[in-house]
Specification:
11 strands
Length: 234
């Protein structure tokens, strides 16, 4: 005789980059086991791979996690974590007034938001009617790229992968119609300030963050600390 099936609760969230609403369920023991196994290896790539699998499973296959911008992946996983394990989690932070005293604080994961920078723009004007329409880098791209601000070659590759369209006063050129050599020459012909404009797209992308107040028990000084990125909340 077949055992009974356990029903999982369903919730709804909004994907930050698109505004699309999607149903999801909490992750189950099999997915929690997958996450724990990836954490034990200490390999970031294993952890990202596990998180991607969990997101795809828990959204009933409606979200292909490999195609998400990294900030979408972080936000969705934190929402899953809140409904699966508990909304409250303890985080150790360093008090900024003396930069040495550590304090544990409680964070409500359900209150974490994906914050948009008012200076962020996806269309970048390069002058003389020429401009670029950017698309957000997928998880795999950012995982390979690391810190593009410190590596010009990585910055070049990431910027290249995120160009969706190039336009001038007469035409719009889609990425699929561009030859690699032409695109390389286009980026290489940019001035320093134009290349910096392109990098600003990444520097101002939406971020998963929360500002918390922390009181130093030694000095009595209360400070604001900005927690940013998924790793900050565990």
């Amino acid at each position: 005789m077949a055992l009974p099936k356990l029903a999982a609760a369903k919730y709804e969230l909004t994907i930050p980059s698109t505004g699309d609403k999607v149903e999801y369920r909490p992750f189950l023991v099999k997915e929690e086991k997958l996450l724990l196994m990836s954490q034990q290896t200490g390999d970031t790539k294993d952890q990202i791979r596990a998180i991607k699998d969990i997101i795809t499973n828990c959204t009933f296959g409606k979200v292909e996690a490999s195609e998400l911008p990294f900030f979408d992946l972080e936000y969705i996983f934190l929402q899953l974590r809140a409904k699966s394990v508990g909304e409250s989690t303890k985080v150790s932070v360093t008090c900024p007034d003396d930069n040495e005293t550590k304090v544990q604080i409680d964070i409500n994961l359900s209150e974490i938001e994906c914050v948009r920078n008012v200076e962020h723009k996806t269309t970048i004007e390069l002058g003389n009617g020429v401009g670029v329409v950017m698309k957000y880098p997928q998880v795999d791209v950012m995982e390979k790229a690391g810190n593009i601000a410190e590596d010009a070659s990585k910055a070049f590759d990431v910027i290249k992968s995120c160009i969706g369209q190039i336009y001038d006063s007469e035409n719009v050129y889609d990425r699929k119609d561009m030859e690699e050599k032409e695109l390389d020459e286009f980026i290489e012909s940019m001035s320093h300030s134009q290349f910096e404009e392109m990098q600003q797209f990444f520097a101002t992308m939406p971020r998963v963050k929360k500002t918390v107040k922390v009181k130093n028990p030694k000095t009595g000084v209360q400070s604001d600390i900005v927690l940013e990125g998924m790793a900050s909340f565990f």
